[in-house]
Amino acid sequence: MNARAEPGLVHQLSNTHLDALEEETIFILREVAAAFERPTLLFSGGKDSLVMLKCAEKAFGAGRIPYPLLMIDTGHNFSEVTDFRDQRAKELGAELIVRSVEDSMARGTVRLAHPGESRNVHQSVTLLEAIEEFRFDALIGGARRDEEKARAKERIFSHRDSFGQWQPKAQRPELWTLFNTRIHPGEHFRVFPISNWTELDVWQYIARENIALPSIYYSHTRDVVDRKGLLVPVTELTPAKEGETVESRDVRFRTVGDITCTCPVASDAATPEAIVIETLAAEVSERGATRMDDQTSEASMEKRKKDGYF
What we know:
Layout: H1 5-35, E1 39-42, H2 47-60, E2 69-73, H3 79-92, E3 96-100, H4 101-107, H5 123-134, E4 138-140, E5 157-160, E6 188-191, H6 199-209, E7 220-227, E8 230-233, E9 247-252, E10 265-266, H7 272-281, H8 286-290, H9 298-306
Parallel strand pairs: 1-2, 1-4, 2-3, 4-6
Antiparallel strand pairs: 5-6, 7-8, 7-9, 9-10
Helix pairs in contact: 1-2, 6-7
C-alpha cells in the first residue's frame, strides 16, 4: 500500500464503520416502533441522545418520529442543554414530555438526605413514575457499553420487571440480532440502540453529519476549582469550598448532566474534529473523568441500575 492511498483508505474505512453503526441503530429504532405499543425516546439534549435523534430522523423522516421524547429533569440541569433540548424538539416537530424530580419531591416520593445532595440518582423514581403515568412499554436510551462496566452487562433490549428493576442474570440472549420483546403486563424494556458505539464513534458521527450540540460541549472559559483531580464548575449549586482556589480555565464538557455532579475537562477543542483528536488520546472514560457521582464501584452502579436507573 502506498502512502498516498492510505489517508483516503482510512477515511473510507471510517465511513464504512460509521455506516454500519448507523444502519444497526436505525434497524433497532424501527424494531422498537414495530414491536411496542407505547415506546418513548429518552432525550436529555446531550450528544448521545442527539445522535439517536439524528438516526431516528433518518429512520422515519423529519416530523414523523413515531414516539414521544421523554426528559427526566433534576431541576439542576445546565440551561444551555435544556434550552437546546426544547429548540431541537420544536424543530423536529416531536412531542416532548418533561417530568421533574422536584415534582417527585413535592409528592414525597423523593426525599433528599440533605439539601445539598445530588438529585441525579433520584431520577430513577421520577422515571418509574413517568412509566406508570404513560404506561410506556419501551424506553430508548443512549447508553454505550464503553461508559463503565455495569453498562457493559446490558443487552440491547434490556428487560425490566414489573417493579422496573433490572436483573442482569435474567437477560435474554440476542443471537443474530434476533430480539425477544415479549413482556407481561407492567413490565417494560430499556432499549440501547447505540450500545456498540464508542465515544470516539459518536464524535466522528457528529462531525460527519454536522449535528448541532449545546455550546458547552465545546471549549469555553469557566470558573472552576480543582477538587480531587476533577474540575468542579463554580456555580450557585456548587460553590467553592473554604481554602479552594477559583481558576478561570478553558474547558468543555465530555458529558452533560446534573450540575451538582458533572465536571468539565480542560480543553481548547472548539470543533468536533478537534474533539475527535482529543478523544483518541484520552486515557479515562468520559464518566470516570467528569462525573463526581460515578467515582464509585461497579457494584454500586449495578445496584442503581437494578433500582431503575438509566
